[in-house]
Amino acid sequence: MLTLLSDPVVFTGVAGVLGLLIGSFLNVVIHRMPIMMEREWALQCAELRGEAAPVFEALSLAQPRSRCPACGHAISALENIPVLSYLFLRGRCKGCAARISPRYPLVEATTGLLFACAAWHFGFTTAGLSAMVFIAALIALTGIDFDTQLLPDDITLPLLWLGLALNSFGVFTDLKSAVFGAIAGYLSLWLVYWAFKLVTGKEGMGYGDFKLLAALGAWLGWQMLPVIILLSSIVGAVVGISLMLVARHGRNVPIPFGPYLAAAGLIALVWGTPLTVAYLGIRL
What we know:
The structure is a single chain. The two termini are 35 Å apart. Helix 5 crosses helix 10. The protein has helices spanning 2-5, 8-49, 84-88, 103-122, 126-148, 153-167, 175-200, 207-220, 225-246, 258-280. By secondary structure, it is mainly alpha-helical. The relative contact order is 0.10. The model has no long low-confidence stretch (mean pLDDT 88). The protein contains 10 helices and no strands. The longest helix has 42 residues, at 8-49.
């Protein structure tokens, strides 16, 4: 089996299928984790106020089974095949014909495609398998941040520590670069946050953004931070201006920055070295 996976074409195909399956689970994470966080906060607030704890329906990333939010129809295994089930059902619930968001197959297809790209680029190696974990975490954070403007510590902090652990063996960079990447990643946005707050009196970003950039620095090293910040800022500015012009998105309506950091991190994972050398002149 290991010999078979060492073939680039086979490993890429297997990774793509695995990505589709993981993408289906990521949809659950994106939907349920913010709800679980809100319930935990409600329990903590009730405890601090000395009130009776609110009662919620049991909810985890594994239970209960996925179901239609409109009619409660439980999703069967045949209705939960990544991408194919959405196409077969024509984007509607089998129970009530309510429209299913196209984001579900989009997350599945994107995860499958990115897993396949990572497999082809890194091969059947520790770096290739680790890159898939990196991709899955960033996709989950992107979806959650788009929906709630939250970047959960339950994802960002383990991602940071995992990056440091992997790079203690030099998987993507050396440990010294990883440690300074985590420190510089956090402090750079922390300084921007406080500078913006002192000048405007407003908060320009959340603390989750600091932790996410620290995690990217831990995985890819401090050398990649300039290109990550540059790419994320350009994409964020373009999207923000487009939303204001096309969708009449108000200037005072916050736009999540996490998805742009995540996208820049994915680009840097594969093309960070040539971009850094070509445009910033930093020799790695």
